[in-house]
Here is the input.
Amino acid sequence: MVLLLEDLVGLHMLKVRESNLMLERCIQLLQVVIAAGGHGHLEQPSSAMSWEEPAVRSFIRTNSCTCNLVSACGYGKDWHKNWMFASTFAALQDIAFQCPHLQGSHPPTKPSQVL
Here is the structure.
């Protein structure tokens, strides 16, 4: 079953709006840093819906960001967990690592996956 924004009510919708506002403010702060000559990096789980948000897509496109997938198992953790970094710092590509293991090779990391 797929839930749409129209299906969310009350506190759930408030959480979605607050989360989106935080994301947009983070991007605004990143833009200030970039405008001052620094680098900007946005990190989210690779499966996060936020990657589809217009503000995020615009940030990536406007700043010619590289998007780098980082799997936890590449850094000594036996987890099935991935992060995505959108960055203006091209050298950040050096940390990219995609899990080479078969599905189910890593133990579950969420309590709901254990049951």
Notes: The chain has one domain: 9-101. Residues 9-101 form one domain. The two ends are 21 Å apart (CA to CA). The longest strand covers residues 66-71.
